[in-house]
Amino acid sequence: MQDIHTGVFIDTLIANATYAADTTPVAVDLIGFNAAEIVLALGAGGITFTGTNKIEFVLTHSDDNVTYTPVTDADMLGVSGISNGIIKALTSAQAAAIGRFGYKGNKRYLKLQADFSGTHGTGTPIGAYVIKGEAMLAPTAAQA
């Protein structure tokens, strides 16, 4: 069995909670790592999602942690047809699921926002993380 434990580190993009409104994105610094995978954990939808009542997950990146731009298809693996940084949109019935999206862009910082549109009387459980891989300095700090 190969060891990936000592070469990865996980940061939170969206803290585990039930949300009914936009999240405030936090910056994750990728310095010291050569790979990143975004993991999106979703509970069952709190509402019936439609093209109007929806949640869009918008990923942006930055060199300086000041000016952020939306990612494009060229920055990502496992997803295509990205418009305005939207890597996933909940617009129809949503069961609990986990999705992963590879980041291959060349920026230092990432932010992910859950952008709510329409009416959300009942929240939806959301959590999002970035697995930073291929550490330049290993072993990485323990996260037990």
The name of the CATH architecture is Sandwich
Low-confidence residue ranges = none
Distance between the termini: 20 Å
Structural class: mainly beta
The major pleated sheet works out as: 5 strands, antiparallel
Question: Into which percent range does the helicity of residues fall?
Answer: under 10%
Number of strands: 10
Order of helices and strands: EEEEEEEEEE
CATH class designation: Mainly Beta
Using the alpha-carbon principal axes, give the shape.
globular
Notes on the protein architecture:
- With 144 residues, the protein is mainly β.
- The protein has one domain (10-134): Jelly Rolls (Sandwich).
- Helix content is 0%, strand content 48%.
- The chain contains no helices and 10 strands.
- It has strands at 9-19, 28-29, 33-42, 54-62, 69-70, 76-77, 86-90, 97-103, 109-117, 124-135.
- The strands form 2 sheets. The chain has a 5-stranded antiparallel β-sheet, with no helix packed on it. Strands 2, 4, 5, 7 and 9 form a 5-stranded antiparallel β-sheet that branches.
- β4 and β5 form a beta hairpin.
- The radius of gyration is 16 Å and the shape is globular.
- The relative contact order is 0.40.
- The model has no long low-confidence stretch (mean pLDDT 95).
Describe the structure concisely.
This protein is mainly β and 144 residues long. It has strands at residues 9-19, 28-29, 33-42, 54-62, 69-70, 76-77, 86-90, 97-103, 109-117, 124-135.
Draw up the topology in text.
Elements: E1 9-19, E2 28-29, E3 33-42, E4 54-62, E5 69-70, E6 76-77, E7 86-90, E8 97-103, E9 109-117, E10 124-135
Antiparallel strand pairs: 1-10, 2-9, 3-8, 3-10, 4-5, 4-7, 4-9, 6-8
